[in-house]
Structure formats: C-alpha cells, structure tokens
Design goal:
Number of domains: 1
Distance between the termini: 38 Å
Largest sheet: 7 strands, mixed
Strand content: 25-35%
Helix content: 25-40%
Shape: globular
CATH superfamily: Vaccinia Virus protein VP39
CATH architecture: 3-Layer(aba) Sandwich
Structural class: alpha/beta
Bound molecules: S-adenosylmethionine
Radius of gyration: 14 Å
Number of helices: 5
CATH class: Alpha Beta
Number of strands: 7
C-alpha cells in the first residue's frame, strides 16, 4: 500500500471537481489517469463506461510508471486526468511530463489538472503551467486558483 500518499488521497469517492465536471467530457473515449493513487478517479470513470489507463509509481492500482523516468503510454487519449500529482514532480520533470501529456492528447481532448500545495510538494506556479498548454494550442474551459479544465484545439 502506498501509505505516504494514500493517507491523503485514499478515499473511495472521486475528487468532487471531477464528479462536478464530468458533463464537460466527451461521452466516450480513452482516459489516462496520471498518478492514479488508489484508483478512485479511474474507477469512477470506468463506471461511466470510459476505457481507462491508470498509471502510478506505486502499484496499488493500475500500471507502474515513474513519471519523468518512464514515458507515458504511447497512445492517444480523449481525456487526461492529473489530479493532485504534478506538484510532486520538480519543475523540470513536471514540464517534461506536461510535454508528454500534450503529445498523448488527441484534438479536442480534455485535460483536467488539480493541484494542492502539500507540505512535501515542490513549488509550482499554476498560471505558468496553464500558460504552457495555452501556448501549445489548448483553450481554457474552466480555471480557478489550483484547478482547471483545458481543451486541445490542434492535432
Ligand atoms: C495525492 S495522490 C493523488 C492520487 C489520485 N490522482 C487521486 O486524486 O486520488 C499522489 C499520487 O502521485 C503518485 N506519484 C508521486 N510522484 C510520482 C511519480 N514521480 N511518478 C508516478 N507517480 C507519482 C503517488 O504514488 C500517489 O499515488
């Protein structure tokens, strides 16, 4: 059990932001759950009929993938979930993984990011992270201080 992380994220219910905004997602498609933890969001999306690839460095659920070291699965996705994960990557690794996220997204893919300044997190500037995607042709659907939903407008 991935005790260190899953004390915080070990709930069985999906993150409220995901539940509230599922209506903005394409009705069908492939989901990449990046840093899936115990799989609460993956299981929710599977329950809605999506095909989900859950990945995490801990093998509680899904496929083992150490972000920054192992590349993201070499597939194209309709929805990318990055809930409470990117702040645990230091700046260079974070932007490297964000580049992989961009390349694994289809045109009109949806990206959800949620951040939290946890004690053991690296510093981050969420606006810069969002701008990174906007500069690559994504548009804002929703954005608040620490969470957003973006859509990719190019291939
Ligand atoms: C706070 S949990 C969030 C889990 C899930 N996204 C959720 O919302 O319930 C953070 C997760 O990030 C994973 N993680 C942290 N650093 C990672 C890395 N470099 N590569 C892969 N997973 C990582 C941890 O194992 C943990 O499961």
């Amino acid at each position: 059990m991935n005790g260190k992380w899953c004390v915080r994220c070990g709930k069985d219910v999906p993150t409220p932001y995901l539940k509230k905004n599922t209506k903005l997602f394409p009705e069908k498609g492939k989901v990449l759950d990046i840093g899936c933890g115990n799989g609460r969001n993956s299981r929710y999306m599977m329950g809605l009929g999506y095909k989900v690839d859950p990945i995490d460095m801990a093998n509680d659920f899904g496929v083992k993938c150490v972000l920054g070291k192992d590349p993201l699965p070499n597939k194209k996705y309709d929805i990318l979930l990055a809930n409470y994960i990117l702040m645990f990557l230091d700046g260079d690794v974070r932007f490297k993984v964000m580049g992989e996220m961009h390349s694994r997204a289809k045109k009109n893919s949806i990206l959800m990011m949620e951040m939290y300044p946890a004690k053991d997190a690296y510093e981050y500037n969420f606006n810069n992270m969002v701008d990174y995607f906007l500069n690559k042709g994504w548009i804002k659907i929703r954005k608040s201080k620490d969470r957003c939903i973006l859509e990719k407008t190019n291939e």
